[in-house]
Amino acid sequence: MTPPTYFAVEYAINPWMDVDRPVDARVAQAQWEALRQTYLRLGHRVDVVEPVPGLPDMVYAANGGFIARDIALVARFRFAERAGESAAYAEWMSSLGYRPVSTRHVNEGQGDLLMVGDTVLAGYGFRTDRRAHSEISAALGMPVVSLELVDPRFYHLDTALGVLDDHTIAIYPPAFGASARDQLRALFPDAIVVGSADAYVLGLNVVSDGLHVVLPSAATGFAAQLRAAGFEPVGVDLSELLKGGGSVKCCTLEVF
């Protein structure tokens, strides 16, 4: 995780961002800290990456890369405003003993790359270039399933799909193209289908340890669905960070 020390909405690169809507830095910091404390309370280790001045979106750590099977893939961002984050996260990966791997084409880390069991679900359409998917599969030695995103409000895969355990996902189908919806139905026939009210507060932007699902507290309908499916929802208010187009998962780069 990276604290929102320099978080602000200084530009608009997704539909959630409004430069005329001020950000309360104090509230953003308090909400981020509540998320960090939630992870610690649930027994997880949290590494903190130092924020860099001039990179207001660095708080969205998930976009910094993808780490699994001793491979650290560093992001290549689509927008120049975020390009500097790659070096910062690569430095952190190196400090952990990894040798960061880059792709030729745009990949925005765990924003568009979500691991389910031994497979990577990979989004494309707005940020990550589909051509990066084959590079990622080769680097990780894992199959990659390409999924087209079609609604700009759900510009990253992690805004429209949440991984709950090695076999279970939750999805918001309207965010996907027809072929992607067909693929997901075939792969996950028992997926939890989330409604618009919860999707529009980025309710699917979750982190799950297989039992506890940390999610935006405003996604109350999804929380009820999770309880009914045997999971334990843990709501966290990240409303201030939602102003930049991110929530729980966006703020969390998981290491597998």
From TrEMBL:
Keywords: Hydrolase. The active site is at H156, C250. One of its GO terms (biological process) is positive regulation of nitric oxide biosynthetic process. The keyword Hydrolase applies. GO terms for molecular function: amino acid binding; dimethylargininase activity. The keyword Hydrolase applies. PANTHER family: DIMETHYLARGININASE, DIMETHYLARGININE DIMETHYLAMINOHYDROLASE. Belongs to the DDAH family. This is N-Dimethylarginine dimethylaminohydrolase. It comes from Mycobacterium terramassiliense. The lineage of its organism: Bacteria, Bacillati, Actinomycetota, Actinomycetes, Mycobacteriales.
